[in-house]
Amino acid sequence: MWNNIRFQWPLHTVLFLTNWLPDNVIFLRLRGFLARGFFASCGEDLRLGRDLTFYNSAKIVLGSHVYFAKGNWISAGDVVEIGDEVMFGPGSIVSSANHTRIGSSFRYGEPQIAPIKIGNGVWVSGNCTITAGSVVGEGTLIGANSVVRDTVPAGVLYAGVPGKVIKTL
Fold first, then answer.
1. Range(s) of the domain holding residue 112
2. What CATH number does the domain containing 30 carry?
3. What are the strands of the beta sheet with 147-148, ordered from one edge?
């Protein structure tokens, strides 16, 4: 309950009140400046686009110079750690909880929760999904529309559904 009052409500209020501002350098930085206190920790120069959703921001750790483009969705059932100089293209999803199945339904299954770690200098292209337990190595490029569900080595192009290493960068 305390985390909802301390982190969630103010963060959602900031995002709601600034959502009408255009996505240019000034307002990306303003949104980031106003929101930075509502995460577990946050480095300098956070830049936030419009239409972002952060669930359980008390478990989201952000490095310096992190950029979220329009429409990202971050859900932290467990710790989500994002390194320095990480960029997220539009419409990406990061979720540290997966649904499980009971009988023939996923509706009431216990969530499978595991931390996510995204290394320094990673670029997560548009419409990517990063699932619970994933670890993305430093300097990696996640190709557009890809699904990450395991450990990705450092310095590679990783793409596909499910994702795989395409080449070393």
1. 2-100+108-168
2. 2.160.10.10
3. 53-55, 73-75, 93-95, 129-130, 147-148
Task: Copy the structure tokens of residue 94.
Answer: 């990061």
| Cα angle: 141, vertex 142, 143; to 5 degrees | 110
Q: How many CB atoms lie within 10 A of CB 28?
A: 22
Could you report the per-residue pLDDT of 124-152, keeping only the tens digit for each? Answer: 999 999 999 999 999 999 999 999 999 99
The answer to whether residues 15 and 52 touch, using CB atoms and an 8 Å cutoff, is yes
Q: Which residues pair with 155 in a beta bridge?
A: none
Task: Measure the N-to-C terminal CA separation of the chain; round to a whole number of Å.
Answer: 44
The whole-angstrom separation of Cα 40 and Cα 73 is: 17
Supply the pTM of this predicted model.
0.92
**157 Cβ contact partners less than 8 Å away, ≥ 6 residues apart:** 140, 141, 143, 165, 166, 167, 168, 169
